[in-house]
């Protein structure tokens, strides 16, 4: 059987059962559960500090009614962060490289922010479709453009996350394959390629964290427009 570079993005199966749900639930099991003890271990303290900092960053652009979404947005941020980082380990599968999963996360949350705005302040939400001071002949065209840009938001969220993670995984696999192939022929070039691979891996760790933050931050900004 001939394998390709894109086989790493196919969902693994065991006895005909897809394991994508297991790979999505495993990161949540790795997080320590809080307890009522005053003295906790270092991992729980670090987790609490990270969640507190992430929540502050996400709630900063929102007014008080938007703080009801803090649990949803923070939980989504932690889920994406752990999945993206664990997907960089060898012999693992990254569910966030699947556009279907990212769209399943982006579309319902985007729709919830939109329906929240239409329910609470329909005039203001619909007013975003037409900028103030628009010349009369341009009104129909601008309404169509703003409507398309509004409807394309969940697609942009899903495609951005998928494309960035997929490109990073492909680059790592290409450079690692070149490193192994050049080792018996040109050891010096192989060592240089290995250094490039190390730097790229560090970069991908940063990309995995940044993309999770950007995904949730854009959702919070969409929410701010509608509350």
From TrEMBL:
Subcellular location as annotated: Mitochondrion inner membrane
What is the species listed in this Swiss-Prot or TrEMBL entry? Answer: Thectocercus acuticaudatus
**Record key words, sorted:** ATP synthesis, CF(0), Hydrogen ion transport, Ion transport, Membrane, Mitochondrion, Mitochondrion inner membrane, Transmembrane, Transmembrane helix, Transport
Q: Which reaction does it catalyse?
A: H(+)(in) = H(+)(out)
Indicate what this protein is called per its UniProt record: ATP synthase subunit a
Q: Report the membrane topology from the UniProt record.
A: Multi-pass membrane protein
State the oligomer form and interacting partners. Component of the ATP synthase complex composed at least of ATP5F1A/subunit alpha, ATP5F1B/subunit beta, ATP5MC1/subunit c (homooctomer), MT-ATP6/subunit a, MT-ATP8/subunit 8, ATP5ME/subunit e, ATP5MF/subunit f, ATP5MG/subunit g, ATP5MK/subunit k, ATP5MJ/subunit j, ATP5F1C/subunit gamma, ATP5F1D/subunit delta, ATP5F1E/subunit epsilon, ATP5PF/subunit F6, ATP5PB/subunit b, ATP5PD/subunit d, ATP5PO/subunit OSCP.
Report the family membership.
Belongs to the ATPase A chain family.
Lineage, top ranks: Eukaryota, Metazoa, Chordata, Craniata, Vertebrata
Q: What InterPro entries does the record tag this protein with?
A: ATP_synth_F0_asu (IPR000568), ATP_synth_F0_asu_AS (IPR023011), ATP_synth_F0_asu_bact/mt (IPR045083), F0_ATP_A_sf (IPR035908)
Record bears the keyword Nucleus? no
Q: What is its main location?
A: mitochondrion
Quick one: a GO cellular component term?
Answer: mitochondrial inner membrane
> A Pfam family for this UniProt protein?
ATP-synt_A
Q: Which residues cross the membrane?
A: 12-31, 69-89, 101-118, 138-156, 168-186, 192-223
The UniProt GO MF terms for this protein read:
proton-transporting ATP synthase activity, rotational mechanism
NCBIfam families in the cross-refs: ATP_synt_6_or_A (TIGR01131)
């Amino acid at each position: 059987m001939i394998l390709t570079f894109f086989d790493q993005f196919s969902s693994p199966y065991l006895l005909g059962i897809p394991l994508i749900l297991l790979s999505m639930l495993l990161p949540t099991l790795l997080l320590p559960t809080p307890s009522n003890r005053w003295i906790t271990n270092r991992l729980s303290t670090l987790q609490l500090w990270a969640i507190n900092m992430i929540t502050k960053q996400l709630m900063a652009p929102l007014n008080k009614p938007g703080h009801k979404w803090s649990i949803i947005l923070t939980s989504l941020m932690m889920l994406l962060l752990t999945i993206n980082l664990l997907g960089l380990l060898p012999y693992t599968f990254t569910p966030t490289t699947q556009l279907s999963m990212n769209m399943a996360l982006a579309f319902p949350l985007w729709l919830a922010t939109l329906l929240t705005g239409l329910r609470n302040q329909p005039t203001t939400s619909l007013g975003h479709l037409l900028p103030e001071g628009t010349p009369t002949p341009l009104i129909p065209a601008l309404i169509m453009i703003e409507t398309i840009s509004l409807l394309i938001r969940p697609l942009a969220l899903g495609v951005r996350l998928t494309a960035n993670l997929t490109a990073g995984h492909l680059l790592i696999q290409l450079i690692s394959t070149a490193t192994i192939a050049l080792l018996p022929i040109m050891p010096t070039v192989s060592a240089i390629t290995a250094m490039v691979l190390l730097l790229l891996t560090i970069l991908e760790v940063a990309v995995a964290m940044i993309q999770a933050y950007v995904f949730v931050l854009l959702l919070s900004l969409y929410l701010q427009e509608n509350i």
